[in-house]
Each structure stands twice: as structure tokens, then as C-alpha cells.
Amino acid sequence: MAFPVTGYVVFILYIDTNQTHIPQFETMDEAELFANEMRAATAHCIISEPYPVVLTEHKRKELLEI
Predict the structure, then answer these.
(1) In what order do the strands lie in the sheet with 5-9?
(2) Helix (H, G, I), strand (E, B), or coil: what is residue 57?
(3) Residues with Cβ < 8 Å from 6, sequence gap 6 or more?
(4) What is the chain's pLDDT, residue by residue, as a tens digit (66 residues)?
């Protein structure tokens, strides 16, 4: 059973403050566009390629009986 891709993330590391930010996008095109624009606009960040977010398990909420 293959689990579906639910979105894409781009990892950003701010070198000056050593903090991270991980925005999530619905499509690969949106994520690539964001990553490329961030690379062109900033010099103090390390920006990854988009990574897919994959659903790995299904959870069912069970109602508790009172």
C-alpha cells in the first residue's frame, strides 16, 4: 500500500541566528518557486530543495464510552 503525498516542505536555516523555518506547500511547483525566490532574495540562509510530506499511518479516533 503506497501512502499519499500530502504536501511539500522547504527547510530554511538562518545562519545568523541558527534558527529554522519549515513552510509547507500543497504542490511541488509552489514549493520550488518559493525555494528559488528565497535563494535569489537572501544571502544569509541555507535553503533546501522541496521534500515531500508522506502520510505514514492512518489514525482512527475511538469514542470513549462513559
Answers:
(1) 24-25, 5-9, 51-54
(2) coil
(3) 53, 54, 55
(4) 677 899 999 999 999 999 999 999 999 999 999 999 999 999 899 999 999 999 887 667 777 666
Return d(Cα 4, Cα 26) in angstroms, integer. 12
Nearest to 1 by CA among 65, 59, 61, 58: 58
Q: Break the chain into its structural domains and give their ranges.
A: 5-54
Helices first, then strands: H and E counts in the chain: 1, 6
Q: What is the CA radius of gyration of the chain?
A: 17
